[in-house]
Specification:
Layout (H helix, E strand, L loop, with lengths): L2 H18 L10 H8 L3 H13 L3 E4 L2 E4 L18 H14 L6 E3 L1 H8 L3 H11 L5 E3 L5 E3 L4 H23 L7 H17 L1 H4 L3 H13 L5 H20 L4 H20 L3 H28 L1
Length: about 300
């Protein structure tokens, strides 16, 4: 699938999620605001609006855009990502490490890994060089690469750094203007969290995707390329480590939903102190869960 088509599909689904936060008869914002919400150009937004109108989700009348009905799952478009590319390689590499318990200090064969992931050795070397910035891999003295490993010390340092980044994002978010696209994203996330809380007994395994979307929205207010790179890796590591420990998963996810909602409540109230306190509590819980998953994995 071409990158442009992927961007269109992702943008369409974001706008569909935004429509879900509105009641039938409500007006959608101007194209400029929708462009911010979807993270694409107005040209792509117009394509998305045309499809929404075709499906009867909205009505278009010149520049006016009105919600006609609540979206449902059948309105969504599947997003199929290409098997290659840096993002896919990064996810597959971390998946390989975390699922198959590759121990620390393991030498990495570039030739073998390149075949495993279907990329050239040059591409893999460039990827590993970038990944070395996060302390996950290191160059060997006589050439090649070595996995430094996901140890308890790494998990503690990662959690502590995550705390610094997210508290900074929370502080900036509280000061965001009323027309900032983060506010409708948070409104959508509130609806999604409440819906999952109502279905926690049967759908608790769906929390990991919602957790990723929540933290992505929080950190999106920080326009810093270095923060964005670290947040991407942090998100992947937390996601995969959570998959190791299935004990009390429903209870943990239910509690995390309530912690997320507490943060959203404080942010929407523009209460910086309460938002920071709620974020600290949630990140302490996440750190404890990460360390617990490491112990569970070591024993398992």
């Amino acid at each position: 699938m071409a990158r442009s088509d992927t961007r269109y599909r992702e943008a369409y689904n974001r706008l569909l999620d935004h429509c879900a936060t509105l009641i039938p008869g409500a007006d959608l914002p101007a194209e400029a605001a929708l462009s911010e919400i979807a993270g694409v150009s107005r040209t792509v937004v117009r394509r998305c609006l045309a499809r929404l109108a075709e499906l009867g989700v909205i009505a278009l009348d010149g520049r006016a855009k009105r919600v006609l009905r609540m979206p449902d799952q059948d309105d969504r478009i599947a997003v199929i990502r290409a098997a290659d590319g840096l993002q896919a390689l990064e996810q597959r590499f971390l998946d390989w490490i975390l699922r198959f318990d590759v121990p620390a200090e393991t030498p990495l064969s570039v030739a073998e890994l390149a075949r495993t992931f279907g990329v050239t050795q040059h591409q893999l070397n460039e990827f590993l060089a970038g990944l070395s910035r996060f302390g996950l891999v290191a160059r060997r003295p006589k050439g090649g690469w070595m996995l430094r490993g996901f140890t308890k010390e790494f998990a503690v340092e990662l959690s502590d750094f995550r705390l610094v980044l997210e508290l900074d994002a929370i502080a900036k978010l509280v000061e965001a203007p009323v027309d900032h696209p983060v506010w409708p994203r948070l409104a959508t996330l509130r609806v999604q969290h409440l819906a999952l809380a109502d279905q926690i007994d049967t759908h608790f395994h769906e929390f990991s995707k919602l957790d990723e979307a929540f933290h992505e929205a929080i950190n999106a207010v920080v326009r810093n390329r270095f923060v964005a790179e670290f947040q991407k890796v942090i998100s992947l590591i937390f996601h995969y480590h959570y998959m190791w420990d299935k004990t009390q998963e429903k209870q943990r996810n239910g509690a995390a939903i309530q912690e997320h909602l507490a943060i959203i409540d404080a942010l929407e109230a523009r209460d910086a102190g309460r938002a920071l306190d709620a974020a600290r509590q949630h990140l302490r819980t996440s750190k404890s869960t990460l360390l617990s998953s490491l112990r569970h994995h070591d024993l398992g």
